[in-house]
Structure formats: structure tokens, C-alpha cells
Specification:
Blueprint (H helix, E strand, L loop, with lengths): L1 H24 L5 E6 L3 H10 L7 E7 L5 E4 L2 E7 L4 H8 L3 E4 L6 H13 L3 E4 L11 E6 L2 E6 L6 H21 L1 H14 L5 E7 L5 E7 L23 H8 L7 H7 L2 E4 L6 H10 L11 E4 L1 H4 L8 H13 L3 H17 L4
Parallel strand pairs: 1-2, 1-5, 2-4, 5-6, 11-12
Antiparallel strand pairs: 3-4, 6-8, 7-8, 9-10
Helix pairs in contact: 5-8
Length: 349
């Protein structure tokens, strides 16, 4: 068994590598790179990747304020624009990663680059010379022997994203089946308690800034938002008797299982906000839009740590960013278990 295990592992990894390289040669699974800085360091990045598809990297071009192109071993890569136009370049060329290759880059210039990449949800790699300028958590990585530091890199990619989505679908379907009768009883209680629809549908902002209709059990009186939408506060008079009970045990969120199946949401992720709030928070809180790199969740790291409802947006953003940049299947399971404990104890509000 020991010898067989070694052989099977070796054969499996070899087959995987061959399969990935075959897909890369056909343009599938290729990571599109833009290099900031067309100097010696930028040319070195291009040199490591010219003619190499083993890891599926492709240099789309450079961003530089002075050069017009970079030539390495008869391979020419164009300069796509100036640094202050980085956001437009990333959007136009569908870029996956940015490699910053300017050792003398100022602190202010680096912050500007990070801000522009956050708007396009693009990962950033920095050459080690820039390590002293780091302003956020980093992880070590490499590119054909060239050491790099990854900044704000999303953990959910490839097989991880597929696994999470598969578990979301399975969990949501099982939840809908198991909770179908209790949800019917809840719907009946809502209709008996107050006039109005059973469900409450509201537009929220999800992954990549896309808007979607979130579905919840109605917990407020029918005319609760005639004077506009506002945060729910403790002992809010707009909340119905049944609604107060539903909110306490997080039962009003159960219809969002439909959102999970539709692909609008995940079981675990940052909570989605209304469009007006997103526009406001984007201006007020640094890196707020990074939380939109992943699907919104029915529950999340911020919520299980007590940051729900009318709580600090700055703290909620920090917890959401931690989740996006440190995702793991174990973390998702941990959040789900803590959510169940909160529901059982009736501490959801």
C-alpha cells in the first residue's frame, strides 16, 4: 500500500500538471498579468515568463509613465498606459494580477495603485524591494524563481471556489427540504400577525458590485418604510410581534437559501448592503469594496463576532476583509457552528 500510494500520487500529480499545461496552451486558466514599471525589474518579470506556459501566466503589457514598450529576447510587450490610468487599463484588458516592479515607488504612489486595483478586484504582487512599504497583510509567493509578495490576494480561487460553491448548493438544498414545513408555519404566522406580504424583497449589492434582490421573511409593518429606509434599532416600533421573534432567532433570513441556490449569495460571506450605503461606505472607509470580491453571505465572520445591525461599519469592514483574505473551509465551518450557537441562544439581535 505504501509503494502503491507513492506511485498513484506521482501519477496523479503528473497527469494534473499535463492537463493544466494543455489547458493553458489553449488559453484556458491563464492568469493575465500587467506589470507596473518598464525598467530593469519589469523586464526581468517578462524575461521569466517569455515562452513559459507551465504556470499559466501571460504578460498582457506594462504600465509606465515614460516607456512605450519592453523587448526581451525578441518578445515585445506594449505599454498600455500611464500609472494614473491603471484602473482603466485593468478594466479594458481583463487583468487578473498586477506586478509592481518599481523599487523606488513612493508610499503615496503605492497607496494610489492599491486603491485603483481594489476598484477592479485585481490581486497585487510586489517585488521584495517594496516590502517596507507594505500597508496590509502579505504572503510570500514566487514567479519562475522571482520572489514576490502578494497583497490583498483573495484566497477563494480555482478548486477552492468550486468546493465552496458546491457546499453552498448542497447545504441550501438540504436546508430548504428540512426546513420547508417550519418555513410554511412561519409564513402562516406572519399573515396572521399583520397585514402585508409574507416575504420582503430588497435590492442589495453582492459580488463584484452586482445588485440582486435579497429575500427575507417580513418582520416589519407593511408601511414601515414610507418615510425612507433606515437602520433597525433596539425596540424598533416598526417591527411586528412575530417579526421580533424571527429576528431574535435569525429565522427571517431563511428565505435567503433561495438566493444561495440562485448564486446571488453564499452560506458564509460578508453581509450585503443596500446600494446607497455601499456608495457612502466606499467613500468613507478605506478598502471597503474589497469585501465585494466574494459572494455575500447569509452569515459571516463579522456577524458571529457581534457586529450586526446598527454596529460600527469600520469594525465590520475589518472583519469582512479578514474573511476574504483568510478564507478556508475550516473557517466557514467555524462560522456556521457559531451561527447555530447564536440562534439556539436567541442572541441574533
Amino acid at each position: 500500500m505504501w509503494v502503491s500510494g507513492i506511485l498513484i500520487l506521482a501519477i496523479g500529480r503528473t497527469a494534473l500538471i499535463i492537463g493544466v499545461r494543455t489547458l493553458n496552451r489553449r488559453g484556458l486558466g491563464v492568469t493575465r498579468l500587467v506589470v507596473i514599471g518598464a525598467g530593469t525589474e519589469g523586464a526581468e518579470v517578462l524575461s521569466r515568463l517569455v515562452g513559459d506556459r507551465s504556470r499559466g501566466f501571460h504578460v498582457v503589457g506594462f504600465v509606465d509613465d515614460f516607456a512605450t514598450s519592453v523587448v526581451v529576447r525578441e518578445h515585445e510587450a506594449p505599454v498600455l498606459g500611464r500609472v494614473n490610468a491603471l484602473a482603466a487599463v485593468l478594466s479594458e484588458h481583463d487583468v487578473d494580477k498586477v506586478v509592481v516592479a518599481i523599487p523606488s515607488l513612493s508610499h503615496e504612489a503605492l497607496l494610489e495603485i492599491l486603491e485603483q486595483t481594489e476598484m477592479s478586484y485585481t490581486d497585487v504582487w510586489l517585488l521584495p524591494d517594496l516590502f517596507q512599504l507594505m500597508v496590509s497583510p502579505v504572503t510570500a509567493t514566487g514567479l519562475r524563481g522571482l520572489p514576490l509578495m502578494a497583497v490583498n490576494e483573495v484566497r477563494l480561487k480555482g478548486i477552492s471556489r468550486f468546493t465552496k460553491r458546491s457546499l453552498d448548493i448542497a447545504g441550501a438544498i438540504v436546508g430548504m427540504v428540512v426546513l420547508s414545513i417550519p418555513m410554511l408555519l412561519v409564513a402562516f404566522a406572519i399573515r396572521m400577525d399583520s397585514r402585508g406580504a409574507v416575504f420582503y424583497v430588497q435590492e442589495r449589492v453582492g459580488r463584484d458590485g452586482r445588485r440582486f434582490p435579497i429575500i427575507k421573511f417580513r418582520t416589519m409593518h407593511r408601511d414601515a418604510e414610507l418615510e425612507g429606509q433606515t437602520w433597525t434599532v433596539d425596540n424598533d416600533p416598526r417591527v411586528t410581534r412575530v417579526g421580533r421573534l424571527l429576528r431574535r432567532y435569525w429565522v427571517d433570513e431563511l428565505p435567503q437559501l433561495i438566493n444561495v441556490i440562485r448564486g446571488d449569495m453564499s452560506l458564509v460571506g460578508p453581509r450585503p448592503e443596500r446600494s446607497a450605503y455601499v456608495q457612502q461606505f466606499e467613500r468613507e472607509y478605506s478598502r471597503y469594496m474589497v469585501r465585494h470580491k466574494e459572494r455575500a453571505g447569509m452569515t459571516g465572520w463579522a456577524q458571529v463576532n457581534g457586529l450586526r445591525g446598527n454596529s460600527s461599519i469600520d469594525q465590520r469592514t475589518r472583519y469582512d476583509l479578514f474573511y476574504v483574505e483568510n478564507w478556508s473551509l475550516l473557517l466557514d465551518l467555524r462560522i456556521l457552528m457559531r451561527t447555530l450557537r447564536i440562534i439556539v441562544h436567541g442572541d441574533a439581535v
